């Protein structure tokens, strides 16, 4: 969980160097935090990059969004930006820094190629500093993630709370019933019956799958389909019914489906299992800490003394 991720995710950039107070009215100050001042144009520069990052991650075109959506995102961004200003200063106070490698990794997660990154930068801004601004926004993201993880580790959860929650949710945490299956898919029922007979006589399942299966995705792997879960509302197909009712290691078939006929064998059957307290302790403890983290972050912002002037941000020059 990442605080503030409900609508935009944490991607807010912060100007870490102080800027001089602008001439009143020309570029009004929107955020003041000690000696730090952020003007409308500075925040909008960051918003432009952050909004394009959001669009890139969600696989959508920002240009295709209407002005109402953009205006809503911009308004939401101001509060998130102000929060980031406070959190980044707290990170500096704690001497928390991210490495260039972490920033490079974040770039790699955002773009699949250098061409994709170049296209992104060209759309964001033709300015020479677009790449530097992008890296700055991503560095701030990674820094906030680091801070929130450190603060999360500082939260102490009473063992009794973990024990109580485990008792309440252990069935919900149970691993589902699964079967791991090999199959041979063929077009005719007669061929399927011949394959069953050959297997019962000792033929190699993997070899017959390679030679005869029409399922190209599994034939080269000895017919292995891997493991799959049982449907929550009953068997989803005749194939699933046969697989979950089969005895492990027994040859089953022919089983008809819309793909043809199947001969199958289950090589592992995993029954549902609720985790023990020891197995689930760390997960439950973290979940409980995550519930407390937003309030701690909000308290940090509330006690910071930061000033935000939304009226100076709304009146964008046309």
Query: What's the number of extended β-strand segments?
Result: 7
Could you give the order of strands across the largest sheet?
4-3-6-5
List the uncertain runs: 1-23
Distance between the termini: 38 Å
Number of separate helices:
12
CATH architecture descriptor name of the largest domain: Orthogonal Bundle
Structure description:
There is one protein chain. It contains 12 helices and 7 strands. With 318 residues, the protein is α+β, with helices and mostly antiparallel strands. Helix 1 packs across helix 2, helix 2 crosses helix 11 and helix 5 crosses helix 11. The longest helix is centred in the first third of the chain and has 27 residues. The two termini are 38 Å apart. The N terminus is likely disordered.
């Amino acid at each position: 969980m990442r605080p503030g991720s409900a609508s935009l995710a944490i991607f807010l950039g912060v100007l870490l160097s102080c800027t001089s107070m602008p001439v009143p009215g020309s570029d009004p100050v929107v955020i003041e935090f000690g000696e730090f001042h952020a003007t409308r144009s500075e925040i909008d520069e960051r918003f432009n990059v952050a909004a394009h990052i959001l669009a890139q991650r969600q696989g959508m075109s920002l240009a295709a969004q209407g002005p109402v959506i953009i205006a809503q995102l911009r308004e939401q961004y101001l509060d998130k930006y102000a929060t980031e200003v406070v959190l980044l200063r707290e990170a500096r106070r704690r001497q928390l820094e991210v490495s260039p490698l972490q920033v490079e990794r974040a770039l790699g997660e955002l773009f699949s190629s250098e061409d994709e990154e170049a296209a992104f930068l060209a759309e964001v801004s033709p300015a020479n500093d677009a790449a530097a601004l992008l890296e700055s926004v991503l560095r701030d993201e990674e820094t906030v993630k680091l801070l929130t993880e450190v603060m999360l580790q500082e939260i102490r959860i009473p063992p009794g709370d973990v024990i109580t929650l485990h008792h309440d949710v252990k069935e919900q945490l149970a691993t589902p019933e699964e079967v791991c299956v090999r199959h041979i898919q063929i077009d005719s029922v007669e061929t399927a019956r011949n394959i069953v007979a050959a297997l019962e006589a000792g033929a190699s399942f993997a070899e017959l799958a390679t030679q005869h299966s029409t399922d190209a995705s599994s034939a080269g792997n000895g017919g292995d389909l891997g493991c799959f879960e049982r449907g929550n509302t009953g068997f989803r197909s005749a194939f699933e019914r046969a697989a979950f009712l089969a005895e492990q290691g027994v040859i089953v078939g022919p089983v008809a489906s819309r793909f043809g006929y199947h001969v199958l064998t289950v090589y592992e059957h995993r029954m549902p299992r609720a985790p023990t307290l020891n197995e689930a302790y760390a997960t439950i403890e973290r979940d409980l800490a995550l519930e407390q983290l937003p309030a701690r972050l909000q308290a940090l912002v509330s006690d910071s003394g930061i000033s935000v002037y939304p009226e100076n941000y709304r009146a964008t020059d046309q």
